[in-house]
Amino acid sequence: MNMKRRQFLFLSSLSAIGTGFFAWMLTNQNHQSADINDSTTAIAANPPKKDLLLRFVSVADTGTGAKGQYAVAGAMNAYHKQNPYDLVVLAGDNIYNNGEIEKISAVFERPYQPLLKQGVKFQACLGNHDIRTANGDLQVKYAGFNMKGRYYTFKRNQVQFFALDTNSNADWKNQLSWLEKELSISNAPWKVVFGHHPIYSSGQYGSNPDFIKTFTPLFKKYGVQLYINGHEHNYERTRAIDGTTYLICGAGAGNRPVGRSEWTNYSTSHLSFAFYEVYKDRIEIGAIATDNRIFDRGIIQLKSA
Questions:
Q1: Dihedral of the alpha carbons of 3, 7, 9, 14, in degrees to the nearest 10
Q2: Within a domain: residue 46?
Q3: pTM of the complete model
Q4: What's the DSSP call for residue 81?
Q5: Is 96 in contact with 128 (CB distance < 8 Å)?
Q6: What are the two backbone dihedrals, phi and then psi, of residue 94, each rounded to the nearest 5 degrees?
Q7: Which residue, 75, 87, 219, 250, has most beta carbons within 10 Å?
Q8: What is the pLDDT of residues 227-240, one digit of tens each?
Q9: Overall number of domains in the chain
Q10: For the residues 10-33, what does the mean pLDDT come to?
């Protein structure tokens, strides 16, 4: 290592000491990290405030049964021990490479056994790998994924979730009619939609113009505050776009590089999962890497609050 390189690293470390705390406090700063930065903090018990409505986590592109999946699952378990939750949004590509249900023990039941034993419920949707065998029908029927169909809705406290089939062979006509109807009759103050494919993304696949045209008017009209997806093997959180935050949590077993866009609040390629604490007036979002450190935080405020 030459002298200039050593000087750079030394000065960078001094700068991080001075700025790390303030970077941590500013939850909605626009920043990107190729490496977990010095403003990260370790998981710690966070006694729930009396007005906590729901705590849940999300992860996607998990079903490899390999080291990366176990590392993320271990971090999910460590977070659960400190901050209990009973819901995981599983946003597709649940079984690699071809959605073979006979692999379910290796790619789901064993990696998440500690959480499943604690009664944590996984709510899944189908990814593009999942439909390669029997069009994903066997996954829809698998009890551990708690799917009421290829698209479905469920409620937790004051949060209503809407699970979508975003694959190219989805029943788009009926699904979109169903989604608009369910959104229009929902009286939940918090509306969270999840599917496998991205709408906005700075990753390998990029944003989907057709999805932007299809979904964003519905989200704006009916007040959807959050869309969660995978497919991109990275983590990315946008700023609110017409009232909706878009969050990619697809680094659940493997990772790929990710860039940033003008609407990016945070992006990184780290193996990770996202967590959410829902209150009456806000959702607090965070992300945790496999070293059990929180590397991103953000807040979604309820418009009417």
A1: 160
A2: no
A3: 0.86
A4: H
A5: no
A6: -80, -25
A7: 250
A8: 999 999 999 999 99
A9: 1
A10: 37
